[in-house]
Automatic annotation (TrEMBL):
This is Uncharacterized protein. The lineage of its organism: Eukaryota, Viridiplantae, Streptophyta, Embryophyta, Tracheophyta. It comes from Sorghum bicolor. It is a multi-pass membrane protein. Keywords: Membrane, Transmembrane, Transmembrane helix, Transport. It holds the Pfam family OPT. Belongs to the YSL (TC 2.A.67.2) family.
Length: 595
């Protein structure tokens, strides 16, 4: 018998490397072995290099800076301290976002902020424990990604939960402002049923697009700007000390963060009220300003434009010119002919109706086209792969043919792709989870909202995956989630289905919540998968972190809203929390009341 750690360990390592070389000459992830026992951690290296062949990545490679650091296994990436920090930050961000939502109606993306705060908190934690000599596991970028994923999924419930939109639209306070003031169409907020509602509708979306994660992230190479920016930030912070990349990124981050903050403060200082200040400056003239053509000096949109591909920016500009510059002014001239002259522009029976329906039609048409294209190309690729079983190909490529891997693929892409495909989430888990959770929701949600029947929920869950794909695809291009647009579509369909005389208002608003939760959660999950892909984080651990964060959000978000709801006169004009979306929810409720 060979001594432990000598012949046995060596032969095992050679055997594993030989297997890796058989699987592919460019296999970039190999197992580490120590003292005859296998370690689940992996390092970025090369089987070819282990066999004596050098692989020289370019100096600009991100992963080359981490080449000597082991990548933790998916279990090691899920730590207790990560979820403790995640829970604390989830409460903080839910309070911040709820306050912003109820005061300004804005739902900003705080992915980068969550990453920064989680980095500094856990870095402080590990340094303090390290001083005592009790630190057992170092703080890695993968663990940081888990915290960020947990926090983002938790505070995302603030938006998909509809606390200032569809859920608040069910209340009697909003019903008094509309014609649909029937008691059967009113359901006032209460902490118990809100938490139950969130738990029933918030998890299904996590399983909707898991089987398509490779198509979205690897094959289509969608940008997902927020997820990509977060990943680059984390890679910069966790790069080994002394690397020029980390120093440069930190300096650049601090410089532009300071400039953006100071400019926002300067704008706020010179803003006296609505339609005042630099954000409402008639840059192109008063007539253009009336048609929403002006520059609002927002660093947020400048940053998004810098991240998005130029073709996306050109498309957005072209869409803005065609709609606000040509279509809406022309339709407005038809007032009195196409719609009653007495209606305001914000009425759904007037100009706003044309805006909403045309926009939703364009989004749905493009999204459904892309899902059909992906489906057809995937079937074609699988057929081609079956016919050419001995070739090394990827399932989908941009031109519809199998994309053969080549030597031109970058070192970083090889590392990321191999790890991204390593810890698979079985399709049976994704499909089975979707079906089981949908069945639970179909059976239990009518107990909370009796007006919503089981067949309404079943119909929503049948069409939801297609709409979730459309939203995730658009979010990957533009960084904008159109979950509210799909929610509005659900209001029309399900309200008309139920009818105003059969609680169509509540049915439409509740169906809106079901649809928004699925569509919005699926897009957020893909954003996080993009972050994980760029930080070599395990998709399996990220999915688990997303589930845990969603569970936190289902409790934290309703509790935070309940605190505001009971402590302040939410929605009161001139109050501390006017909830600007109150006016939107009035419109939403009016839409739902149309038979």
């Amino acid at each position: 018998m060979a001594p432990a750690g000598t012949a046995t360990g060596g032969s095992s390592a050679v055997h594993d490397d030989a297997e890796a070389m058989e699987l592919g000459h460019d296999n970039l992830i190999r197992r580490r072995h120590a003292a005859g026992a296998s370690d689940d951690r992996i390092v970025v290296g090369s089987a070819a290099a282990a066999a004596g062949k050098e692989l020289a990545p370019p100096s600009s490679s991100v992963e080359q800076a981490f080449a000597d650091q082991p990548v933790p296994s998916w279990r090691e990436q899920l730590t207790v301290r990560a979820f403790v920090v995640g829970a604390v930050l989830s409460v903080v961000f839910n309070v911040i976002l709820m306050k912003i939502d109820l005061t300004t109606g804005i739902n900003p993306s705080l992915n980068v902020c969550a990453s920064l705060l989680s980095y500094f908190l856990l870095r402080t934690w590990t340094r303090a424990i390290g001083c005592t000599g009790l630190l057992k596991q170092p703080f890695t970028r993968q663990e940081n990604t888990m915290i960020q994923t947990c926090v983002v999924s938790a505070y995302g419930i603030t938006f998909t939960g509809g606390f200032s939109s569809y859920l608040y639209g069910m209340s009697g306070a909003i019903a008094k402002k509309t014609e649909s003031n029937d008691p059967q169409d009113i359901k006032d907020p209460h902490l118990g049923w809100m938490i139950g509602f969130m738990f029933l509708v918030s998890f299904v979306g996590l399983f909707a697009l898991v089987p398509l994660r490779k198509v979205m992230i690897v094959d289509y190479k969608l940008t997902y700007p927020s997820g990509a920016a977060t990943a680059y930030l984390l890679n910069g912070f966790h790069a080994p000390q002394g690397t020029e990349r980390a120093k440069k990124q930190v300096r650049t981050l601090g410089k532009y963060f300071s400039l953006s903050f100071l400019w926002a403060f300067f704008q706020w200082f010179y803003t006296a009220g609505k339609h005042c200040g630099f954000g409402s400056f008639p840059t192109l003239g008063l007539e253009a300003y009336k048609n929403r053509f002006f520059f609002d000096f927002s660093p947020t949109y400048i940053g998004i434009g810098m991240i998005c591909p130029y073709i996306v920016n050109v498309s957005l500009l072209l869409g803005g010119i065609i709609s606000w510059g040509i279509m809406w002014p022309l339709i407005k001239t038809k007032k009195g002919s196409w719609y009653p002259e007495t209606l305001p522009d914000s009425s759904l029976h007037g100009l706003q109706g044309y805006r909403v329906f045309i926009t939703i039609a364009v989004i749905l048409g493009d999204g459904l086209y892309n899902i059909l294209k992906v489906f057809c190309r995937t079937i074609e690729a699988f057929i081609s792969r079956y016919r050419n079983r001995n070739t090394n190909t990827l399932p989908v490529s941009n031109d519809g043919t199998p994309a053969t891997t080549s030597e031109t693929e970058s070192f970083d892409d090889k590392c990321r792709l191999e790890l991204f495909m390593k810890d698979q989430i079985p399709k049976t888990v994704a499909l089975g989870g979707y079906v089981i959770l949908a069945a639970i929701t179909i059976g239990c949600l009518p107990l909370i909202i009796p007006q919503l029947k089981w067949y309404h929920i079943l119909a929503a869950y049948i069409v939801a995956p297609a709409l979730a794909f459309c939203n995730a695809y658009g979010c990957g291009l533009t960084n904008w989630s159109f979950a509210s647009a799909y929610g509005k579509l659900a209001i029309f369909i399900f309200s008309a289905w139920a009818g105003a005389s059969h609680s169509g208002v509540i049915v439409g608003l509740a169906a809106c919540g079901v649809m928004m939760s699925i569509v919005g959660t699926a897009a957020d999950l893909m954003q996080d998968f993009k972050t994980g892909y760029l930080t070599l984080s395990s998709p399996r651990s990220m999915f688990i972190s997303q589930v845990i964060g969603t569970a936190m959000g289902c409790v934290i978000a309703p509790c935070v809203f309940w605190l505001f709801y009971k402590s302040f006169d939410v929605g009161a004009s001139g109050g501390a929390y006017p909830a600007p979306y109150t006016y939107s929810t009035v419109t939403w409720r009016s839409w739902a009341s149309m038979d």
